[in-house]
Amino acid sequence: MIEDSNLGGNGMKTNDEALLKIKYNVLRTVSKLAFEGRLEEERDNIPFKLIPGPKAQFRCCVYKEREIIRQRVRLAEGKCPSDKQSDNIIQVISSACEECPITRFVVTDNCQKCMGKACQNACNFGAISIGRDRAHIDPGICKECGRCAQSCPYNAIAELIRPCRRACPVDAITMDTETGICQIDEKKCIQCGACVRSCPFGAISSKVYVVQVIEAIKAGRKVVAMVAPAAEGEFGQDITMESWRTALKKVGFTDMVEVAAGADMTAAYEAMEWAEAFKEGKKMTTSCCPAFVNMIKKHYPTLIDNMSTTVSPMCAASRMLKAIDPETVTVFIGPCMAKKSEAADKSIENNADYVLTFGEAIEMLRGKEVELEPAEETKQEGSVFGKRFGNGGGVTNAVIECFKERGESADVKVARCSGAAEVKKALLLLKVGRLPEDFIEGMMCQGGCVGGPSSYNDMVSTKKFRDDLLSRADDRKIRDNIANYHMETFEMHRKEQ
Q: I need a labelling partner for 291 at 20 to 30 A (CA). Which of 11, 42, 115, 451 fits?
């Protein structure tokens, strides 16, 4: 049985246990009420049930805590936490924000009021004055250039960057100067979820679609779960894909498929794209990671034509299922929040209808008093290469394997980018025509999908468990595996970029 309500986003015990408990309790409560058909009548009572009072549990007062719960309930229903309308997956819970300092540069007790006044002389904006005890920085004038901190001989000026802002790879986060509340620039946001993981107040989260999934199940629709390859090893060496299949069927899913099979499909078709591009001397990028795709579209639009048109493994699995039965409701389960933005992209036909993170799926199960239990694997739907697709470098390894299986030269150079810094460097080099490699594998999360913002375990433990589980898989070839599926019945490319 998995018991991880006290785990942080990386699976380690942290001082964030309180906010994680809140998040999971809300999801579990909403799921339970949705299954029982009582969510509509009990929605307004949830904050009082979870925060009975009179003593506050984690913030200044029960009234603020209840407002946080209310906004989290809205998120759990797939809505914005406030009444505003926004299509962005990542949302700010305003009632939980505002505790962080607004001022970026702050004068500390180390200030000696030195005669040289290096800080004041370094400031080109007149933002620094010398008070009775120390220098003072006027936040209304300061441009946050940092020259004062660099010039101070006593290192008396500290740079305070909000964790969410520091974590964002595309500078999409600013602060309201009056309220101190975090603001997300949706034109810049790539929906990667890095800010969600970094916020120590749990003030940023993503929309959740457990209610919609439960409603589809209760309506008697054919609902099929698609579990990401990253699931193997994430919950220990005893939790297999069969564990997921059994648990999901208990709460009403019709069936479950491994997205590793979709990864095999993506690898095979991307190999054909790469081979053609290589012959033409054209450099290409992968298109599996939705945050990476969002970064190209929003921040490097001139590179869109360099991006593979092959659909992601999630989309491939969904299209396969909908080719068999167009009425199938497909639900992806994995460690990625950006997948929610991919599913919401209406330009990609027959993609997943809904996306749940691991934590959301588990709390949905618990709403029905179902847990993941150890189970022997009964069938294998993807190759080992497909199963390792979510590892950093996994896409490249699978594509090169397809080259070999096709009898083609695998002598290609690939920039295997894991994490925002490597991704941005490679894309910049490609943009200016100085990329030495032939292709870019872009994974916004460090370590690939297994390091996603909704992963449950630390990377070291996950690798150990993952290696153990995958060692039990057979050595089937990718192209032999996809021959078991009717690939001719569905399209493997995006119609539009």
A: 11
In the chain, where are the structural domains located? 1-79, 105-159, 210-489
CATH architecture of 105-159: 2-Layer Sandwich (3.30)
| Contact criterion met (CB below 8 Å) for 338 and 193 | yes
The four Cα atoms 229, 327, 361, 164 give a dihedral, to 10 degrees, of: 80
Q: How far apart are the first and last CA of the chain?
A: 42
Q: What are phi and psi of 329, to 5 degrees?
A: -95, 120
Secondary structure of residue 351 in the 3-state scheme? coil
Radius of gyration of the chain (CA): 24
Point out which residues pair with 225 in neighbouring strands.
Answer: 256, 331
Q: Is 343 helix (H, G, I), strand (E, B) or coil?
A: helix
Instruction: Locate 376 and state its tokens.
Output: 């022997």
Q: In CATH, what is the architecture of 210-489?
A: 3-Layer(aba) Sandwich (3.40)
Task: Decide whether 105-159 matches 210-489 in CATH topology.
Answer: no
Q: Is the pLDDT of residue 10 over 60?
A: no
pLDDT in tens, 379-404: 999 999 999 998 999 999 999 999 99
DSSP code of residue 307: B
CB 90 within 8 A of CB 67: no
Q: What are the tokens at 49?
A: 């049930």
In this prediction, residue 238 carries a pLDDT of 94
**What pLDDT score was predicted for residue 235?**
93
Angstrom distance (rounded) from CA 336 to CA 455: 8
The string of pLDDT tens digits covering residues 424-448 is: 999 999 999 999 999 999 999 999 9
Taking the C-alpha atoms of residue 203 and residue 205, their distance in angstroms, rounded to an integer, is 7
